[in-house]
């Protein structure tokens, strides 16, 4: 399956993407202007993709490198940026693969050859071509090379040039300079800015911060509601406890008069019993002398003789059982 997909991509190896900053002009005008500005050696096919992009299919590597390394052109007064195409192309993203100039200051004179520089810069990227002065060796201070680089990868600043095939320690460090490296944001995957200045990242972080703040506020509100419910329960428990205490107090207050009445009744009863006992003590039967008996009986005899009944005011004895019964009834 991988081999089949690779064969499919072979036909698109010289495909580029033209991206306009605004809506594209008419496709006929794009084709005409493009051909006039590029002066291609082979043919070209330009196809409309969407409102801001076109696909550009070239026929050979020379034309591909020539057009791609221009990076931009103006068509009908509108800027079109030229980017590399790859099988993983997505319209909402931009490729990190770009061509840049690499300067090799002080490169040994006998090394000004593409067959030497190409493997030398493998760690940097794919060598596309040398500039005209480097090819013609008309500038001895440095070699200037167009290299295809990946902006998401690190680029070396020095590289070792071995001058002896048998002894690799013999050689020199060659400095590498990069000219006009475009910015690339790994967050939104667009060229022109770094991640620290990405508006998409700032927007997403602000949205995330607000979401976290909202969740935190919701959690706090839920905690406050739980605390309020807990306080409400506690207050209800305290009110219930106070109510019980009040009821107990009122019950005690109601029982206290009853107890007081009971105590007063007991005191009154004891006092009445004491009075009755004193009365009983005073009315207890006592034996009387015969003289006193005769003196009390004499009026009765006289009354019988006369036919009248005189009831005495005092009994000679007291019925104790009767008195006790009266006391109990009291």
UniProtKB/TrEMBL annotation:
Entries under Pfam families matching the protein: DUF4283
Biased segments, Polar residues type: 289-301
Domain DUF4283: 10-93
Compositionally skewed regions (Basic and acidic residues) per UniProt: 229-248
Region (Disordered): 215-301
Annotated organism of origin: Solanum tuberosum
UniProt name for this protein: Ta11-like non-LTR retroelement protein
């Amino acid at each position: 399956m991988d081999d089949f997909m690779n064969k499919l991509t072979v036909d698109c190896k010289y495909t580029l993407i033209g991206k306009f900053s605004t809506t594209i002009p008419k496709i006929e005008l794009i084709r005409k202007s493009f051909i006039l500005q590029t002066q291609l050696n082979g043919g070209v096919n330009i196809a409309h993709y969407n409102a801001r992009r076109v696909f550009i299919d070239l026929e050979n590597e020379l034309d591909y490198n020539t057009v791609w390394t221009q990076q931009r052109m103006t068509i009908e007064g509108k800027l079109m940026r030229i980017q590399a195409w790859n099988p993983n192309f997505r319209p909402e993203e931009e490729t990190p693969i770009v061509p840049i100039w690499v300067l090799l200051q002080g490169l040994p004179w006998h090394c000004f050859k593409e067959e030497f520089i190409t493997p030398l810069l493998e760690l940097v990227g794919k060598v596309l071509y040398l500039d005209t002065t480097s090819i013609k060796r008309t500038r001895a201070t440095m070699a200037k090379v167009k290299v295809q680089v990946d902006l998401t990868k690190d680029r070396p600043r020095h590289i070792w040039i071995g001058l002896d095939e048998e002894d690799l320690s013999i050689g020199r460090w060659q400095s590498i300079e990069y000219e006009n490296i475009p910015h690339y944001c790994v967050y939104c995957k667009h060229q022109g800015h770094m991640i620290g200045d990405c508006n998409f990242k700032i927007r997403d972080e602000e949205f995330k911060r607000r979401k976290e703040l909202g969740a935190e506020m919701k959690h706090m509100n839920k905690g406050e509601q739980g605390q309020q419910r807990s306080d409400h329960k506690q207050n209800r428990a305290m009110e219930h406890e106070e109510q019980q205490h009040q009821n107990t107090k009122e019950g005690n207050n109601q029982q206290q008069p009853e107890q007081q009445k009971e105590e007063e009744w007991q005191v009154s009863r004891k006092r009445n019993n004491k009075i009755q006992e004193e009365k009983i003590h005073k009315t207890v039967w006592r034996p009387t002398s015969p003289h006193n008996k005769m003196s009390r009986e004499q009026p009765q005899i006289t009354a019988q003789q006369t036919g009248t009944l005189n009831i005495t005011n005092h009994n000679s004895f007291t019925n104790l059982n009767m008195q006790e019964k009266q006391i109990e009834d009291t």
